[in-house]
Amino acid sequence: MALSPQQHSVVMHDFKLHALVLAVAGSGKSFTMVERIAYLVEAIRVDPTKIVAVMFNKKAADEMLLKLQKRIGKRNAPESYTFHGLGTRTLKRLIQGGFAEPWAFEANTHKATKFAAEVIGSACRKYGHKYPRLVAKEFLSFIDRVKSDLESPESVWENGNWPARYEWFVPWYNQFEKERREKRIRFFSDLIYDPVQIMLNNPAAASYIEGRYAHVILDEYQDICESQQALIRFIAGLTAVVMCVGDDDQTIYGWRGAKSDYILRDFHRDFPGGTIYKLNRTWRYGHALSCAANYVISGNSDRADKLCISSSKAPNTELFLEYEVIQNGKPKIVNIVDHWLKKGGQLEEMVVLVRSYSKSAESQFHLLQHGIPFRLEGGDEASVLENKWVASLIGWMQLAAGQLAINPYAGDPDIGSIVGIRKVIDVPLLDIGWEKSGILAKMVLQHPEEGQGFGNFVSLHVASQNQQMSDRVLKRGKLWRKLRHMGKAREYPKAVILLNELMYFLDIEKNVTKESDTDEEADEILSLIEAFIEYVKLNSKGKSLPEFMNHIQDLLTFSEKAKESTVALLITSIHRSKGMEWPCVIMPSLYQGAFPIVPRSINESKIETHLADERRLFYVGMTRAIRQLYMIAPRDPQLDEWLRACKGGNCDDVIPFAKNRSVASQFLYESNLYLSKALPAILAGGRGRESLRASSPELLNRYLEELGVDFQVPKIA
Predict the structure, then answer these.
(1) Around Cβ 175, how many Cβ atoms within 10 Å?
(2) Alpha helix stretches (DSSP H) within 628-716
(3) Residues near 8 by Cβ (< 8 Å), separated by ≥ 6?
């Protein structure tokens, strides 16, 4: 593969100067980095042991090492680390130099959670949190954010969006660190935090580390956080030359401390005198998608001045704006899959990218109904039918249909049955503890008639003075008795009526909010439940409750089989899709409030920052496509009018920042989709281009200029 002129400039960059490379999606940055390192080793004769490549995750680090070994041989291939790997190596050197102590490293996340739960146990009792291990996960997120930002706990709390009930995290941070030091232990985030703190507080330690490397090559620079920036700063010192490669428009990990400030400003502060290069030619997708993506991301004001431009060898990428309608008796996503397969495409070449997993629920149901296997990245809770709240509701409905715990167990129930029944009766949580909930499930299976198992449990396992616990368990038993009677007597209610009654009786919305660590988590779960309710409304008509529950069981069975299929469509989040590409990308549920997400509560002063984050995420999603990109939205007459006028760019003043299922995502408004789709014809010199007019042609005209095309689209008022 030959180097492009832009790539050649980066590879041949002065080996004595720092460099920042702004590389758009699909621009061949990994290839360029490998060639840069090969140039340093082969042409400049830099000792390979004096070069280090720093990648964002282990997979990328391993792939980079393999590419380097293939390109210049194992002997000449320099080290390739993740940030945590580099931090670990730095820590070992500090230990060897007598600047750090060799504490134990705990890689097991469950043990880290257990440690945190023990630290905050007294605080949980004081502030009314019954399950320290559940709180510990959120507490560790706060700990990690403090360590990634290198800020005080007070500052991180003030600038974050943490639940008010956890304000005591701030003083407890110091308690956590005190006990960690006493036990001489390090967790994952400490692999970077500890060496950075040592070097910040001890100039001699910093001097000891400086000089190990002559060249530092850093990938995915847009995803860096303050502690990682500091680590690179100390590793480089005043002697190493640093080359950072990234794209500020793909900064999508803000929740863990990543900020575009590093690539836009802080690089020049910490590594002065550097040269800026642009790899703005993409080989992944064609002109229409490049133009549309440029229009969307131009809505962000704080970004580097660059356009993503498709190379002459890029494929012709088709863009489709599809409306959520039923055609030929099939929902839109099923028709898209059918069309792709009929054209000779493969199912595994397709991906459904979602802003959040709850917004994939409708797509999951459509695919299950039509027998299209899919693989869902994100765990069981991302699956609408396997989410614990929906699974519990399904279980209660199966009980009313006479399909659950049909006969009492003569002996001890098997573990699978106990786990299954516990998923039904202990959601929402009865607050009786994990062990006792298993005992309750066992007793219910042994004595299902009239809810006798619930009464037996209270008599034998609940203290007489604990009236609240008794009431909770007996109330759940009352529901069991009522629904079991329906099933036995075949007095079946309508599925949707039963579901609404369950939502009310179990107070699902309140309990979801209560059990969730954050408002965002609660909203995500409630959205999944709402999708299930909507599905029941639409698909239970004309069916008895047992018939409908048989249908749900068929979906569950197919879902289990689909997990084992090697040929399946992938559903994943845009966050997980970073760095990947597919021939066909589908982005469903593009309505205002779903993408961009409108949080339950947000300070008005932070809306612009939030929208900028969401816009970057949308940009990343779009640019995963190679041949086809399908964007599915509600039918919005205003959007049609807007796009026909060839408008684009930021439209915050046109589309309200509010949840509205009937309004298409503002990012579709910003895409200038009709004009973007016309770009390939313009470049081909089609006859119709002379009559083309647009309300917002400026960005497209700049695109034409950069390609050296002597044509401009006139602007209309």
Answers:
(1) 13
(2) 637-644, 666-670, 673-683, 698-706
(3) none
Helices (H), 540-589: 545-563, 574-577
DSSP assignment, residue 264? I
Quick check: 87 and 192 in contact, CB under 8 A? yes
User: From the centroid of its chain, how far is CA 204?
Assistant: 40
Q: Residue 649: which region, alpha, beta or left (left: phi > 0; alpha: psi -120 to 50)?
A: left
Side-chain-facing half-sphere of 287: CA atoms under 13 Å: 21
Angle, alpha carbons 67-68-74 (nearest 5°) = 115
Distance CA 460, CA 462 (A): 6
310 vs 291, 567, 683, 707, CA distance in Å? 9, 31, 12, 10
| Least confident range of 158-162, 238-242, 342-346, 385-389 | 158-162
Instruction: Tell me the pLDDT band of 534, cut-offs 50, 70 and 90.
Output: very high
- Residue 242 forms beta bridges with which residues? 216
Residue position matching structure tokens 């579709």: 668
Buried b (16+ CB within 10 A) or exposed e, 294-308: bbbbbbbeebbebbb
Query: What is the rounded distance in angstroms from the CA atom of residue 348 to the CA atom of residue 367?
Result: 14
Question: Coil, helix or strand for 713?
Answer: coil
Q: Which of 263, 229, 41, 236 is nearest to 150 (CA)?
A: 229
Q: How far apart, in whole angstroms, are the C-alpha atoms of residue 533 and residue 681?
A: 46
What pLDDT shows up at residue 199?
98
Average pLDDT over residues 579-587: 96
Q: Is a pLDDT exceeding 90 seen at residue 582?
A: yes
591 closest CA partner among 670, 641, 671, 663? 663
Please tell me the distance from the alpha carbon of residue 40 to that of residue 406, in angstroms, as a whole number. 73
* Cα→Cα distances 385→107, 317, 328, 376, 494, Å: 32, 34, 26, 12, 20
438: its two tokens: 């298993």
Which homologous superfamily is 287-373+566-703 in? P-loop containing nucleotide triphosphate hydrolases (3.40.50.300)
Q: What share of the chain is helix, strand, coil (3-state, %, to 5)?
A: 55, 10, 35
157-191 pLDDT per residue, tens:
998 888 888 999 999 999 999 999 999 999 999 99
Return the closest-CA partner of residue 527 out of 379, 640, 362: 362
DSSP letters spanning 484-538: HHHHHHT-PPPHHHHHHHHHHHTTHHHHHHHH-SSHHHHHHHHHHHHHHHHHHHH
Domain formed by 5-98+193-279, architecture: 3-Layer(aba) Sandwich (3.40)
